[in-house]
Amino acid sequence: MDRGAYAERIAEVLSGEHGAKVGYPIGLCAVEVIRVVPVGAGLVRITFGGADLADFHSYVPDEHVRLVFPSEDGVLRLPRKDGLSLEWGNPRPMSREYTVRRFSAEDRELDIDFAIHPGGLASDWALAATPGTPMHIAGPPGGVVVPKTYDKYLLAGDITALPAIARWLEWLPREASGWAFIEVGGPGEQIAIDSPPGIDVCWVHRGDAEPGTGDAFEKAVRTVQAPEGERVYVWLAGEAGVLRPLRRWVRTELGVGPKDCLIAGYWKRGIADYDRDE
């Protein structure tokens, strides 16, 4: 479908006052690994390529796709194209959701950054992937389009949210201002980010604490004080339990309403393929 068909709706939201989800046709791409590159000590970047990416849609930072893996019985089950959507069937194919880190329509290349953790299905696959390794990628089903006209932006999350935060900071206008908080294990997991000068980037070190535990991240985010009268957009993502107390804080103390924020539980301790909440 013509990419220009979505330009009008995206432009409408970008020129408006609040963010909104804009849907795209949900495709299924057969791709293969082109490159594998470590990004800091905590991420591995896989670059995918293939002719199917000619019909891939990507426009804004908050976009996600699903990588489809063989099921536990070794059978690769794929969703079926159904008009502009996909029918996943039963039993549902094994898949994991990831952020679109970069897409080049010209080169037909798609980057996805994998947070490395022991025993993770996608993490183990990424560590073993080499050029030529095949993969099927479904989506994205759409993206959250956010105007670039807010006075301040607050972006925060753990290492699973780092790829999206990095893309956000590259996408925002150079005159944007605000705050970015990223929780990582330590200095080795920090990466270079092309951030607007007016965004204060703070790396929160978790140290020996297990991912998804402790309150260092929450305390750091709570230091934000929005200037009175300024419009703030808030984007938070990471472990669902860690985000729970921040949801109320965003609403009551920061004074940001539901049209001006997105808070997404990307994962939950002890649960595989957690369905993120927004």
UniProtKB/TrEMBL annotation:
<protein>
    <submittedName>
        <fullName>Siderophore-interacting protein</fullName>
    </submittedName>
</protein>
<dbReference type="InterPro" id="IPR007037">
    <property type="entry name" value="SIP_rossman_dom"/>
</dbReference>
<dbReference type="InterPro" id="IPR013113">
    <property type="entry name" value="SIP_FAD-bd"/>
</dbReference>
<feature type="domain" description="FAD-binding FR-type">
    <location>
        <begin position="26"/>
        <end position="147"/>
    </location>
</feature>
<dbReference type="Pfam" id="PF08021">
    <property type="entry name" value="FAD_binding_9"/>
</dbReference>
<dbReference type="InterPro" id="IPR039374">
    <property type="entry name" value="SIP_fam"/>
</dbReference>
<dbReference type="InterPro" id="IPR017938">
    <property type="entry name" value="Riboflavin_synthase-like_b-brl"/>
</dbReference>
<dbReference type="InterPro" id="IPR017927">
    <property type="entry name" value="FAD-bd_FR_type"/>
</dbReference>
<dbReference type="GO" id="GO:0016491">
    <property type="term" value="F:oxidoreductase activity"/>
</dbReference>
<dbReference type="Pfam" id="PF04954">
    <property type="entry name" value="SIP"/>
</dbReference>
<dbReference type="InterPro" id="IPR039261">
    <property type="entry name" value="FNR_nucleotide-bd"/>
</dbReference>
